[in-house]
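Rotation project, supervised by the postdoc (A.L.). Task for the rotation student: set up a whole-complex structure prediction and record inputs and outputs verbatim in this book. Inputs entered:
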Amino acid sequence: MSTAEVELLDNELDADLRATVRSFLSERCDPAEVVKAYDGDSSLTPVLWKGLAGELGLAGLLVPESHGGAGATTREAAVVLEELGRAVAPVPFLTSAVVATSVLLAGPTEAGADLLAGLASGERTAALAAPLSASVMSGVGTGSSTVRSVAGALEADTFLVPVWTPDGVEVRAVPAAQAKVTPVSSLDMTRQLADVLVDPSAGELVVTTDRGADGVRSGLLAGAALMASEQVGVAQWCLTTTVDYLKVRRQFGRIVGGYQALKHRLADLYTNVEGAGAAARYAAGALAVGSAEEAEIATHVAAAYCGDLAVTAAEEAVQLHGGIGMTWEHPAHLYLKRAKADQIAYGLPGAHRDRLGTLVDI
Amino acid sequence: MSGPMTSEELKGRVEDFLAEHPVATTEPSAFLHARYQAGLAWVAFPEGHGGLGLSRAMQPQVDKLFAAAGAPDNNPRRNGIGLGMAAPTILAYGTPEQKSRFLEPLWCGDEIWCQLFSEPGAGSDLAGLATRAVLDGDEWVVNGQKVWTSGAHNADYAILVARTDPDVPKHRGLTYFLCNMHDPGVEVRPLRQITGEAEFNEVFLTDVRIPDAHRLGAVGQGWEVANATLNNERVAIGGAAMPREGGMLGVVAESWREHPENHTPELRDRLLKLWVESEVARLTGTRLRQKLAVGQPGPEGSAMKLTFAKINQQLTGLDLELRGDEGLRYEDGDGWAMVRPEHVDFVGRDAVYRYLRAKGNSIEGGTSEILRNIVAERVLGLPGEHRVDKDVAWKAIPR
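Outputs recorded:
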């Protein structure tokens, strides 16, 4: 078990990237617009995604320059995800620019390389045809029956479908136009799910059988590792917003943030959010520079810790805001719904711990 | 010589010193004093006081060279309070005479130090302490009771905070002293702990006479001086770099592996949760050190200590369960026999000892409750506690 050397703080480039994404989102991703997704208006998503993927060039972050991308690493993608989490931004960055892209990067065919270039430029968007809850522990189903609860499906123009063959798993790219996509009323409407029925034979071969299983696995691993950074962003918003509120809210003639019962909870939350930030950044860095085993250990640690922590942060935010935290008008519920859905995505914290145990001999 | 010394030049100094004072033929105490006088003791200290005014980062290199040469050491574990807390405070606030008198025998281990701060009536509220010091000629006459004094039974000197002015608010009436533990009037009684042994003491001070020359800092400046000491303490408690599965986690993970007969899914998941939390704490510490590569620890260190205490307590409790029948036995050394340890060892002892000793982790060096206040107020900027004793003369505070 040799650990990886990872810079756990923002360097200058990270800080620039963060500032760019944050300023874009603070202008265009207002919570009052985001919440409309729950009432059937998802018009914010294509506008935001066009800006982030195209104008800012974020869709190609993980794609090497030789394939038309920015040639950055998962460590930089983590910075973007923290900011997307902080804004509960309803965009398919994680599902397309991280998970689907990582599947293809395992070894694309010529058609796969074309698709990668399209994803990198933001002209195309893809989703892995697997439930959001699928993980490196569970693996994914293959075949032609309906795949339930797929994230990023409504934004995708292409589905990556894993197919069993006698030689192993291959991945086929099926145009969304040839699939039956049924939107689902979801716990988290800022990442709305859909049920997807695809016929893989309608698609082009994008990853062959010698790399297919690895590709799916590396997509799901990257999903879990970087989801941790999104969870950190969610938790940071919850902490900061709650602290700010408790500094102005008065009861019994006092600022309520001065009561020890409340400030001790926030001190604990701060301590754990700091820990989550370190763990998530380490996982993203280990994925880029660590050994395969270290990347996996770091991912399970981050996923197990950050998944529960984001839920705790959101639940504390709702409780410590008092009645206002329970209203539709206050954005806390957007974060609670996102945090709870994220906890189930790419493997439950307990399942990550279980796998971690086999890796570290516990 | 111009510019700071390079690590190559420092290595040369150590080699020259070792050539002049061969380890094999030099008496250990003479060797340590010569090392101090050569400025190779604590190299970050100034010249003339055991150092060369170099960066603290160069110390490990020096220690390694001496250790590799088989040189005698100053038994630092026996004098942790002297080296970690008294010395930096004396350096910061001492007169030239005090620095010359105390630092060399402290570093060489000729004089062992302890800390006379806490009192039965002043724990978290240290500034409320009641031990009185009254000036009589050029001596202070000290009366009071101190408690939780680690190593007082081995100590030659103590850093002491006492009240010199009861008529002003509590923080302003304190003065800091260097107290000779062999003086008449100093009585040390063992304070037996829940582990059965007495690592701590009660110290009774009855008409102890301390020369004014052994006052550290100005009269009334004691709170400021004491805080310099306490900041050094918190750095010492949670900050060290650790390998993965190091410290208490490593000990408990080994218990798990050695007791397959006791494995259950519930114990395994609890251990894995603590494995994850320990690894997250380790990474948080790594990040904190990256942040502090240059500079001083801030209040974030309090968050690290909170986590350390919580994880240690949960791990040591789980360890007893993992051991099953064995967890019911306390057969370390003489069991519950009252002994006087030379130093504290959190991880090296029997599982029952570790479980009980870890209870102190959330109390010593600032209780977890006080640390949460520090995080909430100084990091998050939340309002301070309601204080009824602010701006009130100490003698008017109910106690």
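Student's summary: Residues 253 and 271 of chain B are 8 Å apart (CA to CA).
Supervisor addendum: The mean pLDDT of chain B is 92.
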